Structure formats: structure tokens, C-alpha cells
Amino acid sequence: MAQWTFLTNHAHVLLCVAENPNVRLRDVAAQVGITERAAQRIVTELEDAGYLEREREGRRNIYRLNTGMPLRHPLDRSHRIGELLAAFANPEAAPSGLGPQG
């Protein structure tokens, strides 16, 4: 039986970054169930599209999410990623990785 989920790997990566803004890509990959290379590609795509910013601090990256960005599918464009994060993010996670609301 094929497995599928309602959220994409991109959404899962966003949730990991929202929970821990200085998370390592190897940890993101393990949590999402993808390769480290796929996690790196997704982060780069999200960064190129303006959904997150990556800042180098020493040997680590710190990620900042732009929560005011719209979801990409035409059916969902009236919603912002901040809404997605509010609905699915770990409620005990610190919101320090969240950027402007709009």
C-alpha cells in the first residue's frame, strides 16, 4: 500500500525550522524522512521564493521565516504560511524563528 500525507515535504521542513530556527539540515532530513540533500534543496527553494531567510552564525545557519507569505497553490493563496504554522507547529516550540506577519 502506498503511503501519502496531506502536507508536503516543503511544509514539513517549514515546521521543523519554525520549531527550531537553528536546526541542522541533517536533523530536518531525519524528522521529515528525506535525504539531507533533499532537505538542502527544499531550504534553498524556500529561500529563493522568499519564504525563509538563512543567516550564517559561525558554523551554523539560523533561519527566519516570513510568515506573511501566501501559500503557493491557487486554491490556497488567500492563506499565509503563518496560518499553517499556527495550525501545525508544536505548541511548545518557541516562536523565535517566525518573521513578520504580513
UniProtKB/TrEMBL annotation:
**HTH marR-type domain segment(s):** 9-58
Q: What is this protein called?
A: ArsR family transcriptional regulator
Give the residues annotated as coiled coil: none
Q: Which residues cross the membrane?
A: none
Question: What Gene3D superfamilies does this protein's entry cite?
Answer: Winged helix-like DNA-binding domain superfamily/Winged helix DNA-binding domain
Which branch of life, at top level? Bacteria
Q: Which organism is it from?
A: Cryobacterium sandaracinum
Q: What is the lineage of its organism?
A: Bacteria, Bacillati, Actinomycetota, Actinomycetes, Micrococcales
